Amino acid sequence: MCIFCKIANHEIPAYIIHEDENFMAFLDLSQATLGHTLVIPKKHQVNLFDMDDQTGSSILLFVRDLAKQITEAMGSESVNIIHNAGSLAGQSVFHFHIHIIPRYENDHFHIPPLKNELTPDELLSIQKKIKEKH
Ligand code: AMP
Ligand code: ZN
């Protein structure tokens, strides 16, 4: 059983913030900023690509309510919602989770600015490639 399944089953401890029948939220042990929280579906699924419809239809509402609760409690007015799907995206625990990262003035959390400036033709070619998969 994976480590987040064990947390969901209360088999190993976590700093649980909130849970209901389907989801659980607990503090990330590595606090990117103060209040950094993970939301998991209790039912094991790997990541977005593997997400079931029931989770997909309700997880964002759970995340929204929790993000409000966390930012209000921690005195923050901004938040990053991050999901890493796949190892190249930085996923290290292969049980679906969403990071809620409250942001503060002068915190040290850093998302690098996007730098690729493509020509209109290059953008069109990418647009075409992706649209064709629909
Ligand atoms: P990711 O890199 O998106 O897969 O995120 C995994 C996150 O899980 C990391 O930020 C870890 O700090 C966090 N983490 C791993 N084990 C635990 C645990 N037992 N309790 C809380 N957070 C954990
Ligand atoms: Zn799991």
Describe this structure in words.
The chain is of the alpha+beta class. It has a single domain (3-132), classed as HIT-like (HIT family, subunit A, 2-Layer Sandwich), CATH 3.30.428. Helix content is 30%, strand content 19%. It has three helices and five strands, in the order H-E-E-E-H-E-E-H. It has helices spanning 3-8, 53-74, 120-131, and strands at residues 16-19, 23-27, 37-41, 78-82, 98-103. Strands 1-2-3-5-4 form a five-stranded antiparallel sheet, covered by helices on one side. The longest helix has 22 residues, at 53-74. It is globular. The termini are far apart. The mean pLDDT is 96. The structure holds adenosine monophosphate and zinc ion (ZN). The site of adenosine monophosphate has 11 residues, from loops.
Number of domains: 1
Global morphology: globular
Under the CATH scheme, which architecture would be assigned?
2-Layer Sandwich
Strand content: 15-25%
Name of the CATH superfamily? HIT-like
Tally of helical runs: 3
For the largest beta-sheet, the strand count, sense and barrel status come to: 5 strands, antiparallel
Structural class: alpha+beta
CATH topology: HIT family, subunit A
Question: Which regions have little confidence, pLDDT < 50, spanning 5+ residues?
Answer: none
| Mean model confidence by pLDDT | 96
Major sheet: order of its strands?
1-2-3-5-4
